[in-house]
Every structure is written in structure tokens, then in C-alpha cells.
Design goal:
- Helix content is 37%, strand content 13%.
- By secondary structure, it is an alpha/beta fold.
- It folds into two domains: 360 residues, Amidase signature (AS) domain (Amidase signature (AS) enzymes, Alpha-Beta Complex), CATH 3.90.1300.10; 81 residues, no CATH class.
- It starts with a helix and ends in a 7-residue tail after the last helix.
- The relative contact order is 0.14.
- The mean pLDDT is 96.
- Bound molecules: glutamine.
- Glutamine (GLN) binds next to loops.
Length: 449
């Protein structure tokens, strides 16, 4: 499957053919000797190329990491291996996970398997496309401001951002540490639930890891939605393409018909979500990316002294979007501007938390579109602001650490997939998956690549 379409889709930065064959042979041995091969025995998994894999190049789709091989596996990679999954490759992304289309990858973009002239979304576009094209039934991505959910929506697959701290970030190359969270892509809700059960749970190697296990997600999937209190977030239906909004309304009607209580709910602070995100994320990135100095990792450009070597490495190793973010972040944190920008953005975070708490006081889950539009054409969002607007519906959950997921629901303009977002309170994954499973059971059929 990978061989037949990868040349046109370009989901992968690296295909781990030999290693995958070796790992599969090990699973065969385990089965032959009567050992339990694990819940994901032999299942091919694609990993976003910002997850550390021991001895396997990890690039973040950046020139600056070219040639670097991590000396250790990310916790999620270890857990997948222990469950019997087989890593088939590392997937393409926007450089350092900054973007919403994979057009910022240093190695060229990924193409949407449903229409090769359109983007797969981003930044985990390679992982979303790998699942949509049938290259792997499961993939992992990272979601800092929507990078799992938005590409899942654009590629017509399921994508989950778990509660912050539910999945260990150990071995995920840091972008904005107070937002970053790893999660699964899958063809259906049940596979996503199983994968989250495997990768989630406490890890002493990540200080922000929640000291509890992932709840049993699979067991609630068929419980239905009767009596469920569902809120449609009013502010997240504004400025959204009509084809997408009408799909979300269809879903809301299906909930009502199934006995759920559906109403509109207002979460006013989401209006400032994008602005706050695009101050805090670059601020954290400017600090996290300071480590790429030409000494410790990957490439080095020549310079007459250490300082010049350092700056020429960074100038030639980072792409324009990464450089812009580092500069914005450094500015937002600089003396005299800190309170006006970074400090204010943190206040928006608190306001957002309060508004969502108020919404959850009388709702179990919230609904919105995942992305303001279906997949767009390459080059269509060359102005940074128009690209940043792709994240309107997804950043609120990152600002407050709540779980959210995207479920495919039919198609919109150009016959491209539409995703509906379900949001839940912290550690509300069980109810979120139950809700998602209902949406999936009602989804119109069609739109396969
Ligand atoms: N599109 C957002 C950004 O560019 C989100 C990225 C992400 O979630 N990694 O920052």
C-alpha cells in the first residue's frame, strides 16, 4: 500500500522497512511460543517525526536536525512496542510542528490523499495522510494548537488530543511545553480508544504526567447519548464556512433525535484564544528552540567564532516560519513587553478556563467544527494570519488542557471531508469517546480516497 501511493502523497520522511520486518518477526516468534503478543500485535503504526526513536533519524522536518539519531525512544514509542505495534515510519510535519498545512516542512509538503492538489492540514499532516491513504491503520501526532485534530478533519480520519498530562511527553521534541500533547489518529473511534489506552497513563519521566491510568475507554463506546447534555459553542460557529457549519448542525439534530439535550452555549473568551495562543506558543518555542546551537544536535554551519557559528547554523538550519516564531516569542518575553503581551495572554488562559467551567456546569460535552474550512489548495494561505486562523476552533482546548477530538462527518465543499469536534472537561475522555462513537455511527458514508 505504501509503495503504491507514497510517491504522490509523501506522508513519510522515513520508511523503516527493515526494522518493521524485524519487529514483525519478533511478534511471530512471541505468538509461536505462546506468549501474549499484546493488544496491538503486528499493527503497523506511523509516528510523527518529532517523536524520538532510538537509532532512527528524527528530524522535526527541519534541516537543523539532519543526521541526528536519538539515543532513546519516547515513552509512547516504548509503550507501542510493548503492546506489539510495529513502527513503519516517521511522518512529515510542518517544521517543529509550526503550521497547519505541512507546507512548512523542509522536505516538501504532504498531499491530501482525497485530492492531491490540496493540503492534508498540519502540523501532523503526514500522520493524518498516512492513515487516510491506508498506509497504517494507526498513527501518532502531537497537538499544541490543533495539530492532531485539524489534519484529522481535513483528511477524514479520527484524531484525538487527550487531557494535558494523560500521555507522557517524554521523547516528544518540545515546541510549546505547556500545550504539547501526544495523541492518536485512526480510521475509527474504537481504534483511537485502544491506542490511547496503550500510550496513556503515568510516566515518572515526564514531570507533568498525571499520576493515574487511562480509563477504560472501549467499554463505554456503545452507551448511546440519551440524556446527554450537549452544548453547541456559539462563538465557534461564527466565521466558519457554510458547508462545515451545516454539517455541525446536522450532528446537533441527530443528538436531539437520539434523546440528548442540545442547546447553544456561549464561551466568550474563545474570541481571544488565537491571539493568546500565538503569543504564548512562540514565547515557549523561543526558549525550547534555544538548544539548537550547532553543538549538541544535528547540523553545524561554519563561523569564525562560536557566536557566528551559532547564528549561521540557526539562520541556515531553521526555515522562515520557525525563525519568525522565535523572534515573536523573544519579543513577547522581553523586558518592558512581558506584562503587555505574555502576561496578558496568560490572563486570557485563566478567562478561558472560567468560561469553559461555566459551560460545563450545565453541559457534559461541547460541540464545534474542528476546522473553519475543508482542505485548501497549496499556496492558498500564504499570508501567515490566514494560516493561523485555521486553528480558531482547536486552540481553546490547548489553552486550558482539556481533551478534544475530531470525528469525520461526511463531506463539504469540493467533496472534501468535514470533521466535527467534541470537547470534554479534564479527564473526561470516557464521555468524549462515547459521544464520538455516536457521531461516527450516524456519519454519512462516502469520501474514501
Ligand atoms: N497550527 C498551530 C501552530 O502553528 C498548531 C501547531 C500544533 O498544534 N503543533 O502553532
Amino acid at each position: 500500500m505504501i509503495e503504491s501511493r507514497e510517491s504522490e502523497v509523501h506522508a513519510f520522511n522515513l520508511i523503516a522497512r527493515e526494522k518493521a520486518i524485524e519487529a514483525a518477526a519478533e511478534i511471530d516468534k512471541a505468538v509461536a511460543s505462546g506468549r501474549d503478543p499484546g493488544p496491538l500485535a503486528g499493527v503497523p503504526v506511523a509516528l510523527k517525526d518529532n517523536l524520538c526513536t532510538r537509532g532512527l533519524a528524527t528530524t522535526c522536518s527541519s534541516r537543523i536536525l539532519e543526521g541526528w539519531e536519538p539515543p532513546y525512544d519516547a515513552t509512547v514509542v516504548e509503550r507501542l512496542a510493548a503492546a506489539g505495534a510495529v513502527v513503519v515510519g516517521k511522518t512529515n510535519l510542518d517544521e517543529f510542528a509550526m503550521g497547519s498545512s505541512t507546507e512548512h516542512s523542509a522536505f516538501g509538503p504532504t498531499h491530501n490523499p482525497h485530492d492531491l492538489t490540496r493540503v492534508p492540514g498540519g502540523s501532523s499532516g503526514g500522520s493524518a495522510a498516512a492513515v487516510a491513504a491506508g498506509f497504517a491503520p494507526i498513527a501518532l501526532g502531537s497537538d499544541t494548537g490543533g495539530s492532531i485534530r485539524q489534519p484529522a478533519s481535513l483528511c477524514g480520519v479520527v484524531g484525538v488530543k487527550p487531557t494535558y498530562g494523560l500521555v507522557s511527553r517524554y521523547g516528544l521534541i518540545a515546541f510549546a511545553s505547556s500545550f504539547d500533547q501526544i495523541g492518536p489518529f485512526a480510521n475509527d473511534v474504537a481504534d483511537a480508544a485502544l491506542t490511547l489506552e496503550v500510550i496513556g497513563g503515568h510516566d515518572p519521566l515526564d514531570s507533568t504526567s498525571i499520576p493515574s491510568q487511562v480509563p477504560d475507554l472501549a467499554k463505554n463506546l456503545d452507551r448511546g447519548v440519551e440524556g446527554l447534555r450537549v452544548g453547541l459553542v456559539r462563538e465557534l460557529l461564527e466565521g466558519i464556512d457554510e458547508d462545515v457549519v451545516s454539517r455541525v448542525h446536522e450532528v446537533a439534530d441527530l443528538f436531539s433525535s437520539a434523546g440528548a439535550e442540545v442547546d447553544f452555549v456561549s464561551v466568550p473568551a474563545v474570541e481571544y484564544g488565537l491571539t493568546a495562543y500565538y503569543l504564548i506558543a512562540p514565547a515557549e518555542a523561543s526558549s525550547n528552540l534555544a538548544r539548537y546551537d550547532g553543538v549538541r544536535y544535528g547540523m553545524r554551519a561554519e563561523g569564525a567564532d562560536v557566536k557566528l557559528m551559532n547564528s549561521s547554523t540557526r539562520r541556515s538550519g531553521f526555515g522562515d516560519e520557525v525563525i519568525a516564531r522565535v523572534m515573536l516569542g523573544t519579543f513577547a518575553l522581553s523586558a518592558g513587553y512581558y506584562d503587555a503581551y505574555y502576561g496578558k495572554a496568560q490572563k486570557v488562559r485563566t478567562l478561558t478556563r472560567r468560561d469553559f467551567d461555566a459551560a460545563y456546569a450545565n453541559h457534559d460535552v461541547l460541540l464545534s467544527p474542528t476546522s473553519p474550512s475543508v482542505a485548501f489548495k497549496f499556496g492558498e494561505r500564504s499570508d501567515p494570519m490566514s494560516m493561523y486562523r485555521c486553528d480558531t476552533c482547536t486552540v481553546p482546548s490547548n489553552l486550558i488542557g482539556d481533551p478534544a477530538m475530531s470525528i469525520p462527518f461526511g463531506t463539504g465543499a469540493y467533496d472534501m471531508p468535514v470533521g466535527v469536534q467534541v470537547m470534554a472537561p479534564q479527564l473526561g475522555e470516557s464521555l468524549m469517546f462515547q459521544t464520538a462513537s455516536f457521531i461516527e455511527s450516524q456519519a454519512p458514508v462516502g469520501g474514501t480516497p
